[in-house]
Amino acid sequence: MAIHRLDPLPYAYDALEPYIDEQTMRIHHGKHHQTYVDKLNAALEKHPELARKPLEELLADLSRVPAEIRGAVRNHGGGHYNHRFFWPTLKKDVPARGAVVEALRATFGGFEEFKQRFAQAAAGLFGSGWAWLVMNGNQSLEIMTTPNQDAPPSQRLVPILGLDVWEHAYYLKYQNRRPEYIEAFFHVIDWERIDALYREAMSRESETAARR
Asked: What structural domains does the chain harbor?
């Protein structure tokens, strides 16, 4: 029995037009993400005790995953985790504000400076992968990239904002013009969602620190 499932998008496939086109969204969500889910479930079929664990827990300690399926959990589990995080963070033309924006200004010297550094990281990633804004164990924000479908929990990091820079995320509309896709991305960030994720992460890290 399949444990992991592909949730519907929380908006219509054309909701992000003209920045991300409907056809790309249908293929990206319904084909690529579905494949990650299917292959993750297939890998976990012989290990039902692992299938019942939260995906974040599996990715946070891949050394405990049996070697025969470790690669599948890392790649397909990571793909499922990353996309499951990504879809709800997208919404067109939401103003950038809130505690997270203030934190970005304090950390990177300004909001535009953050955008520039994030865009540079995403554009400079060789091959396929993701650009991230994450929170580390010191409650600090960092910009980082991960190759392929490696996920932040595998590095004990909390994702706040992520951008898929695999070609399947943008090639139908932007072809090899990745910087244009990255620029378009800043028009479809749901900053209310990002602010909520930041606040939740700060609260969890504060509680963890208090228990130490």
From this structure: 22-89 (1.10.287.990), 99-211 (3.55.40.20)
User: Would you give the end-to-end CA distance of the chain in angstroms?
Assistant: 39
Phi/psi-derived region of residue 129, left when phi > 0, alpha when psi is between -120 and 50, beta in every other case: left
Q: By CB neighbour count within 10 A (0-12 exposed, 13-18 middle, 19+ buried), where does 78 fall?
A: buried
| DSSP conformational letter for 144 | E
Tokens of 30: 């319904």
DSSP bridge pairs for 135:
141, 158
Q: Which amino acid is at 154?
A: S
What is the C-alpha separation between 113 and 111, in angstroms, rounded?
Answer: 5
Per DSSP, the residues of 184-206 read HHTTSB-HHHHHHHHHHHHHHHH
- In percent, the amount of the chain with pLDDT more than 70 equals 95
Cβ pair 55, 168 in contact under 8 A: no
User: How sure is the predictor about 3, in pLDDT bands with cuts at 50, 70 and 90?
Assistant: confident
Q: What stretch of H or E contains 72?
A: helix 67-72
Helix (H) or strand (E) holding 159: strand 158-164
Which tokens go with 151? Answer: 């996920």
Give the per-residue pLDDT at 212.
54
pTM: 0.94
